[in-house]
Each structure stands twice: as structure tokens, then as C-alpha cells.
Amino acid sequence: LSPEQQQPTMAVSLSSSSTITPITLQPKLKPIHAIGTVNFGYSINSHGISLRRSAVVVSAITGASGTETADLLETVKVSDLRGNEIPISDLWKDRKAVVAFARHFGCVLCRKRAAYLAEKKDVMDASGVTLVLIGPGSIDQAKTFVEQTKFEGEVYADPNHASYEALKFASGVSVTFTPKAAMKIIESYMEGYRQDWKLSFMKDTVERGGWQQGGILVAGPGKDNISYIRKDKEAGDDPPVEEILKACCA
Predict the structure, then answer these.
(1) Alpha helices in 100-212 (DSSP H)
(2) Which of 64, 50, 12, 2 minimizes the C-alpha distance to 40?
(3) How confident is the model at residue 100 (pLDDT cuts 50, 70, 90)?
(4) Cis amide leading into 87 (omega within 30)
(5) pLDDT at 65
(6) Calpha distance 137→122 (Å, rounded)
(7) What Pfam families would the database entry show (predicted)?
(8) What is the pLDDT of residue 171?
(9) In this predicted structure, which of 5-14, 67-76, 121-130, 222-231 has the lowest mean pLDDT?
(10) Rounded CA separation 20/13 (Å)
């Protein structure tokens, strides 16, 4: 938000003899679906009435927010590597799952995300939690990703980007090319990860410009039981793995 959007002001006309004692009203925090809470503060003084808003982003969602997120995904389907369409909620209907949403199957940062989650797969397995990765792209792209990365979790393709749109994941040039993302790409290359440029420039990716961001979700058992969701604010915005393990395996 711009400064003007963050602090909209409604002027109050006063006569020269008018006085207003400054007061501050602080309503309770209001839950915002899939984001967290937003604290609205109102102040009235001799200069007028101003509205201040500061967003506090939290990772875990519970209760109604989880149900609302499940409702958004109700009609979404993804494809397994054999080409079978599956309602996305079936991935956690009868089990608990950590579901990682990749930017696209060729992305170097997504390959690093897959690896750092796979490093904790033994912990997830011990807790009866399934590791899943979903990517926006074709089934062939998903197969290539598995062949190249040897990812041991389950992989699904979302050719229509339906899950990304339903979850309203961030997308755009401004959240893809950032200083932090650039540093993380350099770090990833130094650690041995590589971008697959052929996958990156395939039609399924290029049509979206490669600007799609992802996130991580913990859900199940039960299709409405979504206990954690974190949406990437920019490319490479990985949460600490300890936070994910706390959500899925504590």
C-alpha cells in the first residue's frame, strides 16, 4: 500500500473557537481470512480523523479460516503423474499432509524448497504425515521434475493453476524480482541447485510469465481440517522448517 492508502484521512471542519480533546479508539483485532489479523486504530484530534492500519501476518490458521480455505478449494482438482484428476482435498482427506506449492517445475528456488522439506521427510513419516508438492504446469513437466530432483514425496500437476487462483497466491514481476530473491538464487546456485531453463520457458510456464508464487499448507485428516497455511510474499520466501514441523508433527 502507498502511504496515502495506509493513512486515509477524512478532514473535519472546525470553527476557530472549536476544540476537540484528542482521543484514541482501538477496536479489537479482526480476523482476516488466510492472512491473520489487521489492527485498525482511529484517532481524532484537532487536525481531523485519521485511520491507521497495520497488518500482522501470521502463519497458522484455525477454526473458521481453515474451513473457509477448504471451501475455496472445494472444486479444485490436480493431476497425478499418471494423468488422473484428483480433488485436491483428497490429498489430505484421510491423512495429514504437508503440501508445498512450487512457483513452477523449473524454478531453482522450488528445487531448493523441495530438498529442504525432503530432508525432514523421516520426521514426517514418523508422525504419519505425507509430503506433497504441487506445481503449476503440465504432467510432463511434473515427471521431469521428479526425474531430475529424485523428490521422494508425492508430486501433482495443476495445469490450470486452479489451486493457486483459489488460494490467491501472490503473482507478478514485483514479487518475483526482488533483492532478497536474487540473493537466494545466488545462494541456491552456490549450494548446487540449478534452474531448468527448458522447463522454465515451456508454454505452461511462459503463459503466466513465470511470476507465480506459491506457499505451504498443512491439512488433514479431514478435507476441512486445514491447520496451517503460509503464502509466499516473494520468490524464495521459505518459512523456517521448524515452523512447518511444529504445525505438522508436534
Answers:
(1) 108-118, 121-126, 139-149, 162-166, 179-190, 197-200, 203-206
(2) 50
(3) very high
(4) no
(5) 59
(6) 28
(7) AhpC-TSA_2
(8) 87
(9) 5-14
(10) 11
Give the model's pLDDT for residue 158.
95
CB-based contacts of 159, cutoff 8 Å, min separation 6: 79, 136, 137, 138, 139, 204
User: Which of 41, 33, 34 has the alpha carbon at shortest distance from 8?
Assistant: 41
Give the residue carrying C-alpha cell 503460509. 230
pTM score, two decimals? 0.71
Q: Is the dihedral of CA 146, 149, 152, 156 positive or negative?
A: negative
For residues 107 and 115, the answer to whether their CB atoms sit within 8 Å is no
Strand partners, 226: 219
CA distances from 20 to 10, 23, 116 (A): 15, 9, 57
Q: Which pLDDT tens digit goes with each residue over 176-226? A: 889 998 999 899 999 899 988 888 776 666 666 678 899 999 999 999 999
Locate 11 and state its grid cell: 478532514
The dihedral formed by the CA atoms of 179, 172, 160 and 111, expressed in degrees to the nearest 10? 0
Q: Give, to the nearest 10 degrees, the angle between helix 108-118 and helix 241-249.
A: 50
What mean pLDDT comes out for the span 139-145?
Answer: 94
177 Cα distance to chain centroid:
17
- 134, 168 contact by CB (below 8 A): no
Output phi, psi for 43, to 5 deg. -130, 140
What b-and-e string marks burial along 44-64, b requiring 16 or more CB atoms within 10 Å of the CB? Answer: eeeeeeeeeeeeeeebbbeee
Q: What is the pLDDT of residue 134?
A: 97
